[in-house]
Each structure stands twice: as C-alpha cells, then as structure tokens.
User: Fold these one by one.
Assistant:
Number 1:
Amino acid sequence: MDSANSLSVMTEAGLETFSPEQLKAMRDEFQRFLMAYRFGLREIETKLGILREEFQHTHDYNPIEHVSGRVKSADSIVDKVARKGVSPDFASIRREITDIAGVRVTCSFATDVYRLFDLLAGQDDITIVQVKDYIAEPKPNGYQSLHAIVQVPVFLSSGRVEVTVEVQFRTIAMDFWASLEHKIYYKYNGVVPDGLLVELKDAADSAAELDARMERLHTQLHPAPQARPRTGLTAV
Ligand SMILES: Nc1nc2c(ncn2[C@@H]2O[C@H](COP(=O)(O)OP(=O)(O)OP(=O)(O)O)[C@@H](O)[C@H]2O)c(=O)[nH]1
Ligand SMILES: Nc1ncnc2c1ncn2[C@@H]1O[C@H](COP(=O)(O)OP(=O)(O)OP(=O)(O)O)[C@@H](O)[C@H]1O
C-alpha cells in the first residue's frame, strides 16, 4: 500500500487505513449518490416549469413567483447525519435524510400554494411520502409553509431509481418571514432572545394577515371562473 497517500481513520471497528484507491472509490460513490439527487431536483423543477408555462398560456395567470432548488452540501449532510444519529451508510442516509434535494416554490397567494401542491401531487409518477401543513397549523414560532416529501423517478443507465425531494410551498410573505427568521436564528446560534421571539411571532401574524388581505383583493380582481355554457367542444 502507498502509505504516503493512505489515510487512517478511527472508526467503530478501530483504526482503519484506507488506500488511495479505496479513497477514490469512496469519493466516486459519494458523487454518484449526490448525482441522483441533482437529477431528481431537475425533474421536479421541470415539472414546475411546465405547470407555470402551461398555466400562463391557458389561464393567462402565473401562480408561481419564484422557484429555487438546491442539493445539500456534503458538509451539511455530514452535520445532519451526526445530529440525527443516522448510521453513516448510503442506504440509511437515503432513508433518513429526506431533504438532500430540496425545491422551494414561492407563490403570490395561499390558494396558489395548495393549487400547485395538488397539481404536482396529482401527477401519476409522483409518490407522496409525507405532507406537513404548517399553513393550517403554523409552528409555535410562527413559521408557515406547506412541506411535501415526494419521490420522483429518474432513469439512469442502470435503470429506474426513485429520488426523494423535499418541496416547500409558501407565499412571498411567508418566504420573507422565513428568510429573516433563519438569519436571526443563525446570528444567535439558535438561542434567540425572548423579546425577538415575540417580535418574530408578531411579524408572522402580520404576514398571515397581509396574505389574507391580498387574497381577498385578488379574488375581487379575478373572481373564480364561472362555469361556461357548454359548446360541445372539448378543450385540450
Ligand atoms: N426559517 C425557518 N425554516 C424552517 C422552520 N421550520 C422548518 N423550516 C424549513 O423547513 C425544513 C424542514 O422542516 P420540517 O419539515 O419541519 O422538518 P423537520 O422534521 O424539522 O426535520 P429537519 O429536516 O431535520 O429540519 C427545514 O430544513 C427548513 O428549511 C423555521 O422555524 N424557520
Ligand atoms: N427544500 C428546500 N428548497 C430550497 N432551498 C432550501 C430547502 N431547504 C433548505 N433550503 C436552503 O438551502 C440552504 C442550505 O441549507 P442546508 O441544506 O445547509 O440546511 P437546512 O436544510 O436549512 O437545515 P437542516 O440541515 O437542519 O435540515 C439554506 O439557505 C436553506 O434555506
């Protein structure tokens, strides 16, 4: 073994030494593991892009303000594996860490949040693993969003794999609040002073009120479409 380039690591089995070839194989396996998540992310982004474009064309209305996606960094995965006490093997990480690929869909109105969720969830290649509705039941700190853990098929040269993706649906106001709260949480290392927590909860309530007002105004501008007289024509 080329001891100059080998690496010794203390594992549960004791001190283990890895050769350069073994290290390269581990790196390749990790890259392949992450690659599937990149493809899964792309599939979901494509589905959302299609819904957005088709909705604009058919209804002259765009329910999506913004879509952002990310694959968790290696450091962030390692941190989360340690924090949650997940066994450090690919099968366990795949099963337990469900937000390695994540997409955030920002809509103008809460009705669009649910509409988008229904349109994505209703697609027959999408499997819904879990839904958390923090809009119907906000977190105690005021956080609101609709979270869905979904699986989407990706076709690799080795065959079909189901990739898990976390999709967060929220309004602009919810997103504004969440990004500020995230910054505050990190600035105070998770120990936010009580006064700030109260202000944040108050701001979340104001954001929810603003959402409700904007939705009411929007409904006046765009009343729910009336049923059209039947013409015998079928729209595609
Ligand atoms: N800013 C902000 N983001 C949140 C909050 N709660 C959840 N999120 C976001 O939503 C993600 C998943 O949250 P949950 O669906 O509640 O998942 P969980 O059960 O807490 O599991 P984790 O993925 O371990 O956080 C987080 O990684 C954040 O991106 C919150 O209070 N503030
Ligand atoms: N589903 C998602 N879609 C898009 N962006 C996300 C999603 N989840 C988190 N992010 C963003 O990705 C960035 C990196 O986050 P990271 O993956 O390190 O941690 P996290 O998911 O926020 O938290 P945790 O590791 O505790 O689950 C942050 O700016 C975060 O807001």
Number 2:
Amino acid sequence: MLMKDCMNSRLLLDCAKSCILASSPVFRRQQFLIRCLEVSIDHRPHSRDMQALRSIEVDSESVIRAITPALDPTRHKGQAGNIAVIGGCREYTGAPYFAAISALKIGADLSHVFCTKDAAPVIKSYSPELIVHPVLEESYNVGEENKRSITSKVLAEVDKWMERFNCLVVGPGLGRDPFLLDCVSELMRHARQSSIPIVIDGDGLFLVTNNLDLVRGYPLAVLTPNVNEYKRLVQKVLSSEVNDVDAPQQLLSLAKKIGGVTILRKGNSDLVSDGDTVKSVNIYGSPRRCGGQGDILSGSVAVFLSWARQHILAADSNSNLSCKNPTVLGCIAGSAILRKAASLAFLKKKRSTVTGDIIECLGQSLEDISPAS
Ligand SMILES: NC(=O)C1=CN([C@@H]2O[C@H](COP(=O)(O)OP(=O)(O)OC[C@H]3O[C@@H](n4cnc5c(N)ncnc54)[C@H](OP(=O)(O)O)[C@@H]3O)[C@@H](O)[C@H]2O)[C@@H](O)CC1
Ligand SMILES: Nc1ncnc2c1ncn2[C@@H]1O[C@H](COP(=O)(O)OP(=O)(O)OP(=O)(O)O)[C@@H](O)[C@H]1O
Ligand SMILES: [Mg+2]
C-alpha cells in the first residue's frame, strides 16, 4: 500500500514537472525549432517531386480550347457526343448518375446508363435527362441454368446501341458480382471490336486488373485509377509497390507494359501517360475529398476524348497541339475541368461542398476557359 502511494506521488510529480516544462517559453521554443526542422526535412524530397511535376505540366486550358467544338447550328443531335455509362447496381446508384450527368453538363448531347434492374428506377428518378437501360443482372437474380441465355440477351440489348456511342465509361458503381462482371467483360470485347473508346473506372478497374487482356494493346482504353486502384494495378502488372519518388517514370512503364493504354493516375496532381509520354495537370482543385469526384472525372474524360478524336480527324494533322493522342488529350481536359469546377464549388460551399455542387460548376468551369460564343 505504502509502495503504491509512493509510486502515485512520483507519477504526480513527473506530471507536474512536464506541465511546468510545457508552459516554459524555452521548452516551447525548442519544440518549435524541432517542428521547423521536421518540416524542412520533409519538404526537400517533396519540392524535388514538385520540380519534376512542373517540368511535365501541360497547358490544359489550351488543350480544352483546341478540342472543344464550336456550337454550330448546322450540327444535329448526337454530334457533340453520345456517351454510355455501364454501372449502377443495388448498392451504388450515385456513381453512374454522377458520371452520366457530368457528360451532359459538359456538352454531350446524349447520355445513357446501362445498369441493373434494381438500380434503374432510382437512377431515372434522379434525372429525366438520362436514358436508362435496366439490362444488367446480378447472380442473386439468375439461376445457373439461365446464365448463358441472359448473357446473350444483355449483349443483344447493348449491341443495338453500341455503334452509336462515341465512348463507354465502364465501372462507376458497377459492383463486383461475378456474373455481372462476366457480362461486362463481353460488352468490353464487343466495344473493342467496334473501336469504341472505353474509360474504365471504379469496379471496372477491379475487373480489368484481374483480367488485363480485356484492355492490353487497346490504344482507345483509358484507365482512371484512384490511390487504391493504382496500387492494385502496380502490384499486378509491375509486381512492385507504388513509387512516389519517381511517379512519372513508374506510370510510363505501367502504361507501356499494358500495351499503350492511357492511364490517368488521380491524386494531388493528376498524371497521365500512354506509355510514350507523361503529362501532369496541377491546376488548383479543392481540399474537399467527398466521394463521387472520380465519377465526374470519368464522364468528363469520355466527352473530351470524343471531342479530341473529332478534332484530330477534322484538323487532318494541322492541329497545333503537340500531343495527337485523343485519349491523353481527353484525360488532360477532363482532369482540368473537374479540378476547376471543384475549386469554384469550394469557393461557394466550403466544407459543405458535395459532388452535386461540383457538377453544378462544370458549365462555368468550361465557360471560363472556352466561352460558348
Ligand atoms: N455515391 C456513390 O454511389 C459512389 C459510389 N462509388 C463507387 O463505389 C465503388 C467502390 O469505389 P471506391 O472508390 O470506394 O473504391 P476503393 O477506394 O478502391 O475501395 C475502398 C475500400 O472498399 C473496398 N471495396 C470497394 N468496393 C468493394 C466491393 N464491391 N466489395 C468489397 N469491397 C469493396 C476496397 O477493398 P479492396 O478493393 O481493396 O479489396 C477498399 O478497401 C465503385 O463502384 C465506385 O464507383 C464511388 O464512386 C463514390 C461515390
Ligand atoms: N489529394 C488530392 N488533392 C487535390 N485533388 C485531388 C486529390 N486527390 C484527388 N484529387 C482530385 O479529385 C479527383 C478524383 O480523385 P479521387 O482520388 O477522389 O477519385 P475516386 O476515389 O475514384 O473518387 P470517387 O469517390 O468518385 O470514386 C482527381 O481527378 C483529382 O483531380
Ligand atoms: Mg472512383
């Protein structure tokens, strides 16, 4: 008992000493100097990274101005873009909606969503602007004996539309049901046969990372991984860990190893590579990391990619853009427009900014760079 009391008083004494010490100006000054030293040590590699990133930074606003089509009265519906999002299941209805509505808000004429039967009425209720096809099925709804016939039915339904699409976005809110993913793999093979560009995001990246042949060597494939998705991709393809010290070089190797697909690595700076070149988009975005910004990005990339393809065909190689790969141009423009919209939304809404607020700023963001008239 005596010993316990003694220990307690010693503890109290130590505690009192540290309190006095913590309030002493000399101690606080020492702590301040230690913190400064830590910051400057941390800062050195970081500033080197920033220099490397600045050297590959692209003038994204010029890219947007070059590829955004004029609002020409002779054009008809569909010519400014007909996009299809493949995604939306029992759990996720927001993600496909964000991607599809972003495509429209940027300037596409038509935006479709191919989703499961459960998700369709919900997505339709968010917006009458979207054309929603309740065609996909998840395992829980399908008996083993019906799987083959249902797959054929799904493919036939989507194939009816396929040739009209300028770009597919595969994955926002798709989920990971194995039967559904098998159907989507088939859809991707069909799109590839018809040379339709495919932007792959979210659960589409889960699918592709486990089945790289779906995109290997397809120059019209764009992968848009976030931090987790990128880590899985690097581990699978390069059998290594993510290297943040030489991020551009690693991204270049990754894109090359998958046969020249384009990869947009999302993060503090967005990095884009097709295996030949690496570009970075650093324009100021938002400190809010609310879910759904990647979905806006995938819909935006789809539209700009379609416009970049049209621009390159029409310009007949007279374009003054140094990069001629429409998938890279689409990524640069999509990233820049999203980041600018996120910063505009944050100015208004601060900490309460949500994805819908950013979508509302897409129009202003594009207008500031490439005015409609
Ligand atoms: N409002 C909406 O509707 C929004 C919907 N969204 C949609 O959400 C989906 C997932 O995208 P995300 O960005 O959460 O994936 P990410 O950061 O890799 O994973 C985080 C952690 O979760 C886990 N995990 C994920 N999915 C899993 C699954 N099906 N089953 C089991 N585990 C799963 C994952 O585990 P791991 O992959 O490491 O095994 C990791 O630990 C995608 O369809 C996206 O479009 C978003 O776009 C946001 C707005
Ligand atoms: N740390 C960051 N600082 C600034 N911007 C960022 C940062 N991380 C991501 N972003 C921006 O947010 C966009 C979306 O990236 P994010 O990593 O949130 O995607 P995601 O996780 O797939 O989103 P989602 O919730 O839609 O699935 C990127 O294009 C990027 O411009
Ligand atoms: Mg995502």
